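Q: Protein A?
A:
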Amino acid sequence: MAAFTFSSQHRRPLPVRDADPHPIHAGKRFLVLGATGGVGSETCALLQAQGAAVFAADLSAEKIAQLSDTLNIPGATVDIGSETETAACVEAAITALGGLDGLVNCIGIAEHFAPLDTKRSQWQRTMEINVIGGYEAAALVAKHLIAAGRPGAMVNIASEAGKKGHSETMLAYSVSKAAVISLTRMLSEALATHDINVNCLCPGSIATPMLQDVAEQFADMTGGAQTDIFDSMISTQMHCHVQPSEVAGAISFLLSDAALPIRGQAINVDGGDTPY
């Protein structure tokens, strides 16, 4: 029998497999925060294709208008760092869709600061957007579901940085995403008796504008070429970037009834690079 050898050299990138377009979310209504980003926009499109009504929210009015026109879905601008705007956004989604059955929180910022020179204001901005705003939206959606007596599901987007950390320049970001993982666990326990399921995903190596920005910031610091840095930020097992549509597929599954036994988990979607 011929011997099998395993080598990372000359490995072909694994093909993208599209999520099932069947109407598994028919009759459901979801608010997607961070809807105009790479993962957010793919999530809106997939949930709609699977039968859900979707309300899109993000910071840029121009991008929200474009997404709303493309998918023919309602939307609104929101600064998740503002408690008032977050509350208004959730209320607008409830009004537009006639209620909500779940929440997807894709909003986040990834800024680079020296680990020993991160200012208080930089910590506050990172935590307000990546953690506190998401919590406030989740709490408002949960209260709505409880008052209506309906089950629901929520998915937060954390990061592999929340597990492994990137202390060189992304200490604050890594800490904030670790907080999202813990927040997800606590919300899952708190809302279990109300039949509201809460999980989070920990993406990595995702081909999004955010990763392009990270590569640009690393290029500025190291003097390297942005394209070379971005091209190197791939999954070692898949030998390519994870695509936003693949993350959207995982989000859709966690919002479904099939994911009912999966609760309070931080699931890696980074092509196998994080082992726990």
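Q: Protein B?
A:
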Amino acid sequence: MRIHEDHAPRAPARHPSPPLYTPRLRLRSRASADSYLDGAWWPRSSELVTELPDLLAVLAVRLGPIWRVVYDPRCWSSAPASTVVGGATVRMDSYHFELWNTMYVFGRDAGMLVLQVIPADTDEPTAHAAMMTAAESVADTPAELRPITNHLAMSTATETLEHDRQPFGAPTRTPRLLLRGTASHAEQFDGAWWPRTANLTAELHDLISALTPRLGKTARISFDWNTTSRHQRGIDHGDGVDLHVPDVGQQPDAMHLVGVDGVHLTLLVIAADTPADVADAQLLHAVGRTRHQLPLAD
């Protein structure tokens, strides 16, 4: 699931003008939905206002009219809060991403693309290799490239820090998660989670978002974090979630989550590189189902 934004102006907008220069852009196919990055862009200068019109003219083919761009201010010259592209106002918000030089582009129809921006002064061989890597298949994408991104922080500067914490907004990607019904109490697992990469901490926002209706606000997560996860920042400051090593007697593949109200869930965590058919079987087994049973409404 993509981010759902509630701030988009409803007036019609268009980006009808073709690009003056064809942007140096490489996108994944629409079918590549499991990667954090949707592609890479190599602009010709560090002037964001100058570079955006050509980029948005091309991205509008995929997204439709575009109303907002969130960019990394460390990688561009000073930019205004908005600009006019093709006769429509596009909001421009800065955000310090963990994955350096990331850019989010939001369409008015709730679509979104995430780009890795390659600095304009990068030499051609390096830039070309980076663009190819960013658009490779999901299986070839290094796990460490999936950063933690607190999407509520990517909002207007007038919002307060109190909004920059749980409950999070809609997940960036729908987590591969299956839960038992609330009436099941005596089982080993309450559900199973099949993360998309080995960097589990980088996917926690999406998992917590999906579990909020069941768990409430998450207070504590205990797990045997792998090396990739430990080397990443655990979770954004102020989120109010404590990450712990396993509890006494906790199985290596079990994740314990505790809500602020004491609600407890235990999830089976399936390795990201597990073949799809095996992972599907493990998801179903963890919640007491088989392939021949229809999913039950929770």
